[in-house]
Amino acid sequence: MASVITIAGEKLFAEKAQANEQLDIDTFIFANVPAQDPAAPINRDELLPSDHIVHQQIVQQVGRINENVVVYSTVLDSVTGPFEFNWVGLFSSVNQTLVAINHIPSTAKTITEPGAAGNTLNRNFGIEYSGIADLTGINVAPETWQLDFTARLSGMDELTQQLAKDLNGVDSFIDDGFKVTPRSALNSFEIKPGVGYINGLRAELKEVTYLNVSEYPKYVYGDAYFEGDAASTWAPRVQCYTSDVEIDDFIDEQGRKHFLAKLAIIHGYNEVEEKRIKFNLRQDSSVRAFEKLDDAKKDRLLKLDQEFKVNERNAVYKVRKKNEEVVDNTLAIQLYENDFIGKLMMDKEVTEKNLGIVAGDVAYDLFNIDILDSVRDILIEKNIKFVIDSSEDIAIRREFKFVRSLDLKPLRIKTAGGGGFLRTGIVKDEIEGQKVLSVGEQKTFVKGVRLEGGLPVRFSSLVGSDGKLPNRRGRNTTCLYLGNMYDFEIDVILSYGENAIYGKSIFNGSGKVNIEWCHKGWALKPLSIGSAGSACTSLDFNTNFDFTIHPFDIENVVYSKFKGYCQAIRMQYEHYESDEIAIIFRDEGLGSVSFEYGIEAVEAMYRYNSIVPSYIDMKLRIELGNSKENHFEIDASRVSNVPFLDQAYFSTIPPGVLAFKNTQFSGSTVRQSTNETPVFHKPNKETRISLDGGYIESGEYFKMKSNNSIWENVSSTGARFENGFLYPDGNETNFNVNNGINLIDLGEIEIDSNGEVEINAPSGFGRILFVNIHVVRSTNESINGLTIMERKSFSWKYKTGLGNGFFVNASILCLKS
C-alpha cells in the first residue's frame, strides 16, 4: 500500500506555518478508482477522484505521537455502506485542499442486514511533517486502536532475522538437512529433512521431499517465508522446488517476502553439485568481526575453518609490489564460497583503471596516485585473487572463511556489464608479464569454466613496468589467459593489453570472443593460442586490430574452427596494408580450420579515415610445420592435446583442411622472399588448402585518377606459388585464380522523385566494396549530405536530396560471384 502527502497539502502546511495559523484537517474521503495498482507510486499532484467517491465522513479522533507525527482516525460502523473502496483521502474542507492520499487493495464495507452482521472498519492516517503537532494544535495521546503495530512487529522480526544471520551466516544448514541426493530411480532425487537457516529464518523440513527431473541442469532452491494461521500464530514456512534458471528473493501476490537459498545444481541423473553452506557447531567456527581485512590477516588466533567477517567503508588498500617470499601462507585467506565470486563481480564494473595481477601471490599497484586513491581492493593471498575498482564507496559486508587449502570446484561466473580479476591455480613458470583474467595451470586441466554475459576483460592502460604516460599500455600484458582447459564456454570482450587472448592446450571449447582493441603500435600477438598443446575449439572471433604486427599467431591448432574478421591494416602513403604479418598458422598437425579475413578492408578504412585507398595489400604467412608423413599418429615426445594422455595428435579424422573464406592473398604475400625461400612453407601430406569465396590478386590493382571520379588499372607483379602449396601433387592448373577486386563503370543512373538512387552490382558479380558517384546533369554542385539509406551485399541505396531530371555517374568496386 502506498501513501503520500500531496504537493497541495505540503504547500498548505507551509502557508499555515508562515502565517502562524492553525491547520484544520477534518474529513475522510473514500473512493473506488478503477484499474488502480495499490503498489504503484502515487503522483503527489493527484486530485480528488470526484466521479468515483463512494463515501465521506468527518475525522472522529486525533492523536499526537510526537512533535512531528500526528494521527487522524475515523470509524466506519456496521450501518455505514455498503460499498467498496481502494482510495482513501484526508481532506481539509476549510481550505478545500486534499492533504494526503492512501492507495489500498480493494476493501468491501458491508452493513448489518437480516441474517448477516455488517463489518466495522477503522481508518488511521499518520501525517509526518516538521512541527505538525503544534501546527494542528493536537496535544492528546493517541488511543491504542489508532496505532499501527504491524510495522513495529515487522521491524522486530527483521531484527531477529538479522541477529540470526550474524550468528549463523546468511544461509546455513545443520548436518544433512536440505541435502539433495540422487535416488535409485532414474531422474529422481530427494531432499533430506532437517533444519537450516535461510536469510536468518529458521526453516525445518520435517519430511523427505521428492523431485522428478526430466531436463538438466536444474537449480534446487529452499524457499522460506513468514505466514500466519487462523489462530494468528506466525511462523516461518519452507518449501523446496526446482528451476530452469537462477532466481532471486521475491515478493508474492499476497505481499509475503520469500527468501531463497540455492541448495544444489543438478547437472545429470547422477550428478548433483552441492551448494549448501553447512552450519558448524564447533567452538572453532565461532564468528569474529574485523574492521579491516588486514586486521583479519594479522590475527594469529584464527583457527582452521573459523569464519570471520569484515566491515569496510571507504577503505583504500595501497598494495605495493612485494616478493613472493614475504607472503605468509599460514595466514593466507581464501574465498570460501564460489557463489561469492559471481556476486562480487556483479557489484562493481571493471574499467581500464583496474589494478593488474602479476606472478606469484602479490598485487601490483598503479603509478597514478589519483587513481590509486579510488581503488578498493581485496587481496586474497593464495590462488584466487580479486581487485575491484570503483570511485564509489564500498559499504558491503564481506564474509570469509579461514582455510589453508581449497578444493576449487568448476566456476560459473555471470556478469551484467561487470567484471573482475580471477585466478585459479596458476603456477609461476606459466606467467609471463601481467594477466587480467587467468584460468588454468600447467599440469592440471581445468574443467567446466563458464564466462558468460559478455564479460569485459580489460587491462589497465596505466599499468606497466615503464610507468610512462597515462595512456601507456602495460608491457607484455594479457587480457585473457587460458591454461590447460577443456569443456569450457566463454563469452568475453577483450580490450587493452598487448595479448588479447593467450593460452596453452585449450581443448573442447566454444563461445564468443570480441576483441575491441589491443594496442596501437607494437602489439606482437593479440591472439596467440595453442602455443604448447592444442586448441580444439569452436570459437566465434570478432576482431578489429588496427596497427598491429601479428594479429593472429596460432600454433598447434588441431581440429579447430575459428570464425573471425581481422582488419589488421594500417594507412601508409595513401594506401592500406597490413603491418608485417597478419595471420600465422604454425601447425604440426593441422586440423579443420577456417578463417574469414580482409573482405571489409576497403569500405572499413574509407569509413574510418575518410580517404579512398589507392590499393589494399594484405599479408599472410602460412607455416605448416615439417614434412612428417602423418601428424595424427601417436607421438610420445609431443605435448598431449588430449587431457590425461601422454601421447599427442591422435585422431581418427584425417586429413585436415585449412579453408580461407573471403580471404585475399596479395602478391606481396605469396612471392618468394629475398633469400629465394618461399614464404609459404611446404605443407604436410594430409593438408589441403582451399579458397572458398576469396581471391588472389593477379597482376593488377586500382587507384583513383586525379579528379577522384574514376578508377584506373595499374600493373603489378602477379602472385607466385611454390609447387605443391595448393595441392601436394603440384597440379596448379586445378586452381582457378580469381581476379580479385573488380572495377565496374555503371554509367548514368537516374535519381527518382524521392531523391533516391539505387546502385546495383551487375549479374555475375558479388559483394559491393565501395561506390563512387557524382552528379552529371542539370547542376554542377556536389551531393552534400549524401546518406546511405540501405546497404546490402549487392545493392546500395542513397538519399541525395535531389529529384527527377538529375543523374549520377557511378563506378563500383566489387567481387566476382
From TrEMBL:
Could you tell me the superkingdom of the organism this chain comes from? Bacteria
Name of the molecule in the record = Phage tail fibre protein N-terminal domain-containing protein
Q: Sorted alphabetically, which InterPro entries does this protein's record hold? A: Phage_tail_fibre_N
The cross-references to Pfam families, in alphabetical order and at most eight, read: Phage_tail_fib
Q: Where is the Phage tail fibre protein N-terminal domain?
A: 3-156
